[in-house]
Amino acid sequence: MAQWRLHRVEWNDAARFRVWRGGQAAFLPATCVRLHDAVQLLRTSEGWEALVWSEGERLRHLAPLEEGASVVFCVGKNYRSHVGEVDSAQSLKGITKGEAPEDPIIFTKSSRCVIGPEDAIPYPHSATEQLDYEGELVVVIGKEGKDIQLERAWDHVFGFTVANDVTARDAQRRHQQWHVGKSMDGFCPMGPDIVPKEFVMSDHGVLDFDIVTEVNGELRQRGNAKEMIFAVPEIMAAISKGFTLQAGDVVLTGTPAGVGAGMKPPCFLKPGDVVEITIDGVGSIKNQVA
Asked: Which of 175, 180, 182 is nearest to 95 (CA)?
């Protein structure tokens, strides 16, 4: 089958899932309102046979998952280069310990903070003076699983997309638990497409993606998914211990070095800044701070 991508677009004042393949596009049934539904449908031959293809029209991309229906998992300190910068950053004292984790650091963001790949990031002036970015590769779950074994982990992955784990550093430090500092309105730009795993990963499960973040055209982050401390199967196994992952759940897998808090002096985002995150073969998101 030719390479294809799944995305969620605005069409006739409604959100619809659509498959894009070589300039041709096909809407999924209107009953597919959740990412869970779309992923499940595309795992069946019947779902593909029912698609009606036409010339692809360029439409506004929305966030790939809808509010409230999916769990947004995140992995903290999953690149050694990032561990080093956050542990030496004065602005992050009290958030981290001084070494790489022995087990994956798992936390969540509210799915209500997920926005589209070109939507504005609202600056919460009442809550933070240290708004920061984190470019991340996102794993999209395609098959339900609990207590997932390492050797079976890839069976549960549908594909990948791009996200910015926007963070209020001072709130993150103040509350210790990271959820508040990472779940404010608009704090998770994501998209534009979900790329099936078979089109972008090696036969041996190696992820060789460059992750690049620019702010106002200035290079801030450049890393590679191969540098993760905990690979995707290890992350999947850790999260699913005693917990059922559902199709449509997503996992932000961590960020490489170069966040604003780690710069000397720290360089946080301000209104008007434009953050662009690009991952080879997966996609690019571009959001302005409003």
From this structure: 175
The confidence score (pLDDT) of residue 265 equals 92
pLDDT at position 207 = 92
Spatial separation of the C-alpha atoms in residues 86 and 90, rounded to whole Å: 8
Which CA distances in Å does 133 have to 37, 220, 244, 259?
Answer: 30, 10, 29, 6
Q: pLDDT value at position 97?
A: 56
